[in-house]
Write a structure and sequence with these properties.
Layout (H helix, E strand, L loop, with lengths): L14 H6 L6 H9 L12 H12 L2 H6 L1 H4 L4 H28 L5 H9 L5 H38 L8 H21 L4 H28 L8 H6 L9 H7 L2 H6 L5 H4 L7 H30 L4 H5 L6 H10 L1 H35 L6 H4 L11 H14 L7 H28 L16 H20 L15 H17 L23 E4 L11 E2 L7 E4 L9 E4 L7 E4 L8 E7 L4 E6 L11 E2 L20 H10 L4 H43 L5 H9 L2 H30 L8 H16 L3 H31 L10 H4 L7 H16 L4 H5 L6 H30 L13 H4 L1 H8 L5 H33 L17 H8 L21 H16 L11 H8 L1 H16 L31 H10 L1
Length: 1085
Amino acid sequence: MDRSSGSLSTGEMSPEAHLQGTELAEAPDLELLAVMGYKQELRRHYSTIQVFAIAFSIMGLLPSIASTLSFSVPAGPAAMVWGWFTACFFIFIVGIALADLGSALPTSGGLYWWTHHFAADKWKNPLSFLVGYSNTIGLIGGICSVDYSFVLMVFAIVSFVRDGEWMASRSQIYGVYAATIIIHGILAILAAPIMHRIQSACIVANVGLVLATVIALPIGRSRTAEGINSAAYVFSHVENHTSWPTGWAFMLSWLSPIWSVGAFDSCVHMSEEAMNAAKAVPYGILGAIGACWSLGFLSLCIIAACISTDLSSVLESRFGQPIAQIYYDALGRNAAIGFMVAMATVQFFMGLSIVIAASRQTWAFSRDGALPFSNYMKVVSRRFRYQPARAVVGVTITSVILGLLCLINSAATNALFSLTVAGNNVAWATPIFCRIFWGQNKFKPGAFYTGRLSTPIAILALAYLSFSVTLSMFPTAGPAPSPDAMNYTVVINGFRIKHQNINQAISVPNERTSGRGSDIGTSRNSQPMSVVSPVKDPGLAGKWCNPQQTSCAFATSDMLRPGGWLVTAASTETKQEKGRRNCRGSLSIMAVTESHTDGADTIIPTSAHGKPPGDPVLLESAMPEETPQNAPLHRTLKSRHLQMIAIGGIIGPGLLVGSGNALHVAGPAGILISFTLVGILVFFVMQSLGEMATLIPVSGSFTEYSARFVDPSLAFGLGWAYWYLWVTVLSNEYNALALVMGYWTDVVPQWAWILMFWVIFLTLSNLGVLTYGEVEFWLALIKVISLTVFFILATVISAGGIGGKTIGFKYWSNPGAFADSINGVAKTFVIAGTLYAGTEMVGITAGESANPRTAVPTAIRQVFWRILIFYVGMMFFIGILLPYDDKRLLSSGSKTAQSPLTIALSDAGILPAAHLINGLIVISVISAGNSSLYVASRTILYMGRSGKAPAILGRTNKAGVPWVALLFTNLALSIQGEDTSVLPFQAMFYPWGTYIALAANIFLIFFQGYTAFLHPFSAEDFVVNYILLPVFAVLVLAWKFAKQTKIVKLEEMDIWSGRREYGDDITEDVSKKTVWTKIKDIIVG
């Protein structure tokens, strides 16, 4: 904004300045910012997780909850819990609406810039001034409220130390408050080089504080005379300690989450320091809100369960903070001091983070000339690593002045909290309103977009924000508040609006801007730019591209603009810009050199697929036409899919239920030994498989490798045996689902459940591999979170925090650590091997991974943590919670009743345990069934395509789905001059780890069932352990004699077909997609 013109104007940009910005950011971010009329001035060094960390750190979660308990406790525990949950739902809706805008137009001044961009002409300046001032004063109010809360927390600690006999005066509070803000300002400038790392550390600190609290509070409270409050008290008890009606007192409890989760727009203000801002900003917003929503709800449930039922004593605590009283009542003086110190430390860094966010908004607003002293505050300091140091000084001084309110009374102090809410909510609502009602045609979606849902989401967000602004203006005491109980937010906002109007009214147009109007999208560059949407280049279809050629294609200027947009110069001057495109239409470095008056650009590739110079690349459009016989599997599984599949994708009912049988057979120490030993074996097997899966990512995986490197007959036997394994697993999952559903109702017959789930599994599998990836991602995530919660509960139960008795390791003494000495350990090898089955699934999914060179090694490395945490961890916890001779482990009832998780939680008095574990088993069975069908179908697909099964089984449809295989299932490098350096991923401890894995597997194959030969001989155990060996031998020998196959010689091994070289991987799409496009991608691949 230009104060002398009364209108918005962008920062000056010239071609030279634009090129200099390449030192600060990558080309795509530079160009998107240039489209909005700005040059890059700040250094981009914040990753997506660090942008998320800024918002998450400002929210602070537990310190924020602690600071605002005085708003939620008066209405009782139900208001604390459900007020948080409900308000966070609406805040998440607002976050989605702003994420759409933040992805499309990521700039530090986002809120007021979007308002100006989308508003009707006569409303552009008034509304953008309103938003800019509201947002600026809201963020500065956030600094005041966060640091004021920090000071109160510090003085609460001092009061603790003095046993509540000392209270700080208002002048003392203000003095420490002012000193804190000044320290934050100094740190924000001097610590700039490591600030992004500080934000990452804040994530760990915040989450760690939450976990420590939710574990320690119940343990401590359970040992007091009052004990832990009942679930009925936590979730349904309402009180009213205000002078408002009970219903409105409940609504006032929303002020706690509204203030606590109100800093997500800081991601927007970090846009010009974020790498790949079009993705970092929206995901940072939604990640921060989602994390605070879930972790905050968990924290408040625990606090409500541990709070004194005499709420008045909490609200009127002698320590000055309700949370201090809660810690004191549950944990005692010393532990409470420790927690308060940790919370104060986290809150200190909250203040530092919000100073950074507020300074970026202030700098952006000053850059557009809208604030007093704009010419001073818009300067970026190169001395302090391209930081807006003067803007930091400005917000620091303003916060110190605004904090003088705390010298008046508590009502005036509360205005610091309400000011943040009111200012920010107005700033969020206005651009959403302008975009929906005036700017629909102007809006061009970014990498994140909710499609047709965007408008209804925005309307719901506006309705909520209107209510939230009204709520924040209400005094907490009513309905006829005295002057001392007045909410002074309206006074401050009134002053702010009056100043804004005067500031705009006294401005007059000047000669420099009068010719341009007030469109912020216009650059001050002497060469005005035009912006249009990108379109595909038809001139590239079906051609060969050679990186040594001078030109890959000659495209007209309406086909390409670097970074995905078109920018053409009105003059004939030559300019250079970097862009991204390759012959496949995906992202790769290209360059636009000369802009000609005839509107044509010469496109010169600087890299194409990473191939050696001169190696031609055939365009996809020139490939042979796909048919049902040769249609390839779609390579659409993303890194996150493979990582979650590796961590929790096959945590199935076997682990949840079968672990109880293992405990009964071997005892607590025995299962730790057997699962650790088999886990080590699995780890080395996966390391070796990872080498080949990254170099040659094919869905046939080890079955295909055995044909290439050993003998085709081995692949024949292995493929059919492996397919049979997963078909039987799938059959067991159908049966298990019918049984666990029968736990809730016996009205539906078992065969009906099996038929229903048969249809569900078959339908899901035929929707495409991306569907499989998404379903497995979310189901695995639920399982991982559930088991993590169980581990936390198990720790608390063992310590006596829940259940009223300390368990420790007493069951290791009585009945003992081993159930049957070494024999028990040996017997559980089969159980362990069965439960570990599926870890090799990552190798099979590699054939449909977009980026196997990066995704597969990451997933393989996570196998170690999965083994350590989930398998060995599960064995450890059930071993300390239950004796191995507990008869319920072998119950003849439902699987839910047999689960050691159900037994342990029920014994601890967690009554809904059976229902919760039953739900988790249902999720696990669905996930395991889905995975079984996927693995078996891909195995039989390879068999069909390689001639080892009927050819019809090798067919796929256009979506890359092996539908026939699915239906059928449901009814040597050195010899060839290569060395290990060509492997994208190399196994740990190679080659010794590989030798160990091979030897251990051979040993287990023949000795896993040795206990069947002990006196007396057990025919049942012998068949169970060895039935597949003769079947496998018959299959291998029959194929070998029928086809006369030979063992593959080293020099004949096929180590080339199926490879993906650097550059062959599909770049994960960063282009804009609507919700409907994403749904289509998930359904049809």
